[in-house]
Amino acid sequence: MSRASRAGRRERRAGEPVGGALPAWVHVPAAAGLLLVLVPLVAIVARVDWPRFGELVTSPSSLAALRLSLLTATASTACCLLLGVPMALVLARGSFPGLRVLRSVVLLPLVLPPVVGGLALLYALGRRGLLAPALEVLGVRIAFSTAAVVLAQTFVALPFLVLSAEGALRTAGQRHERVAATLGARPGRVLTRVTLPLVAPGLASGAVLAFARSLGEFGATLTFAGSLEGVTRTLPLEVYLQRESDPDAAVALALVLVAVSVVVVVGVRGREGRGSP
Amino acid sequence: MSAARRRAPVAAALTALLAGLIAGCGAAAAPDGDTLTVFAAASLQEVFTEVAEDFERDHPGVDVALSSAGSADLATQVLEGAPADVFASADEATMARVAGAGLVAGEPEVFATNVLTVATPAGNPAGVTSLADLARPGLAVVVCAPQVPCGAAARRVQEAAGVALTPVSEESSVTDVLGKVTTGQADAGLVYATDVARAGDAVTAVPLPEAAGAVNTCPVAALRDAADPALAAEFVEAVTGEAGRAALAAAGFGVPAA
Q1: A122–B183: do the CB atoms touch at under 8 Å?
Q2: Which residue, A31, A71, A109, A165, is the most exposed by fewest CB within 10 angstroms?
Q3: A45-96: per-residue pLDDT in tens?
Q4: Is residue B243 assigned to a domain?
Q5: ipTM value greater than 0.85
């Protein structure tokens, strides 16, 4: 991120030294903060049992967790797109009383501890939850299923997509939409031919963030879905369990999650850097 | 003023700041002579809170800091150098990890036993009557994962009884199993007898005669690096002594003959 934003600043004030306007002392707490993030990551890399790394991350339980994590995170991202894009459209373009309250509600899972989110899901969709009678009639049993994992991940990841999409919609503005409308395009056509293509990069960033958040989901999954190999035990839950008996395997899997996170962050920030004015 | 000329003092200041931070945090975490840090398995939390209160009363000026978590978690923390004075585990295998690393002072002492039982939501809505019953198709049964003490015991009980369960979830701690049962998500779960006693009316227990073949023994030990070895040894005595035994028995633990 820093490289991209620095490049942007350089463009605006050509010739000025980088960070020239900052007092020197600012760098001290900034560097301390950077170290706080960096040192633990270096420590985990240093702990990896490299000769056994391949064997540890390809054990049957590790592969099952990896497969399940990729599957559920992909499904959750799809759910986030299906639900989140319309939500962002309403939040960005709608005008009705209570919109601000609505936005706060939508963003709540962002600040809620995931374990609380898991409990909330449990009391809504669990076997004795608010919607249990309706689910019973439909013959749907969510508890302890992969669907529960996807629900938990969607719950925590949705705000990331809504925020990104809403931001992109506001930045894009409504000029092109108005022009298309005056040329006779119906709202549906304006949406699919003008609005969505305009905000596609923002949606992509949001989807990647939602995917990453889903991949890392732990608290809500553990509370709401349980932990069973191949069904509900995703990568973070596998790390949590392995840590008890085989710390080497936990560290190896943790590194896989770190690597995925790095790819995601670099991907999203790189895109943002290019896109910003 | 170039940034390069400033770099040296900045680096010095940074080092000082970090050193200060680490020293500050370290000082806050390190036990002084008057604090006894006790690591106790999650299932022991209530009893140890009682024992700690008695201990503080008998030792004016001493503050017992109790840290409760899964045994395996606590053992890992001790192995990673956590400043603990006493460690009480929910099974001997976990204590052996700490003792094997040479971190125990003297020999760990067994002070209590715990057996598994079947916990069902209040009123036993699924009508579970035995361990074999838990293998019934369509029944949502939750157990601990084999990697943790209660899961290891669950596996031994199944082997002893010749029953193979297909749980819908294998949790990382016995409290998570209990949570799935009390909220009614699971029809039944294998937990310690003491957990059922602790949960009160929220769960109904189904007797599990097979559990006698898989008793977990809880050992306690003063740790080698205890800040005050004499005080740590005294706490171990308090646990294994008369008052400790009474508190353990009241909570539903088995207490070995003195």
Answers
A1: yes
A2: A71
A3: 999 999 999 999 999 999 999 999 999 999 999 999 999 999 999 999 988 8
A4: yes
A5: no
